[in-house]
Amino acid sequence: MIATRAVEQFRGHLRKFDGSGWNEFWFAPADPLASAVMRVVTGLIGLYVMVSHTPDLVEWFGRHGLLSVKTVGILASGQLEGGGPPSVLNGFDSSAALYAVHSIGLAAFVALTVGFFSRTANAVALVAILSYAHRAPMLSGLIEPVLIALLLYLLIAPSGAAISFDRRRATSGGAPSWLANFSIRLMQVHLCAFYAMMALTKLGNETWWMGEAAWWLAAQQESRIINLTFLHGSIYLINGLTHLIVMSELSFAVLAWSPKLRPFAMLFTTIVWLVVAMLSGQLGFCLTMILANLAFIRRQRGAKYWRSRPNRRRTRRRRSSHTRTLSHQESRF
To answer: pTM, whole model, 2 decimals?
Structure first.
């Protein structure tokens, strides 16, 4: 019933999508706060990925590392020499050079997170994460596709116009921008397509249809956080968890477009992602998807809160100054 209402609302929106509706959806000016929030979220995810490469940087990519350029070329393309997509890391194999390039990538994600020269930092961070994905695609996990998409769409938005050092340096406030709206819409559409793709992939697998997938996730010893193998006798619970995961992914792709049902969809998927994290141990990916869902947070409420903060601070400063003046005058008498 809920899903049917969401589909009807979505169809109603599509019927209204003449030229003006289409333009309003994609190009209506929006507060850049949502883009700023996603900039912080994306920066934190990127820092997690970059830091995870740090301990074994030379062992993997060094001159005598396990994944030299020649080895990766053989594994990735089957060719004897080179091959594979371009990467900044292809030109460096000494320890000093690798750590220097790696430090630049880390600094870019730190700058992106705090909003210091946000667009430049965004571009450098995107090149850094693509370089790692191209240099050793066999090391890339589930996080990188989501992270690369977020970085690409953030490059369009004025994400430094709020919650940033760029905002403090600017002479004027962050005005509503169609680029901010366009960037967030691209994230939303891509995210829903990602959810739909994950759900449809599961529906094409017999293990998910039979309701056994949750058990196979819990049975993995390499990555699990909690030992949940005691659930092997709870057949109905395993079946329910398996189908709940698929249901959450399918429903989010539809319910996220309904303003009234969106909070339910976000809460539902958040709970399911936490369950998946406990079952599979893929904590980083599950947290990435939870944070990526913030692209659907209603921008008006957040904007009112953050825009009102400077006014509240100024009011408190005026009251404090007025109180000190009165106290000084009273002390004179």
So the answer is: 0.81
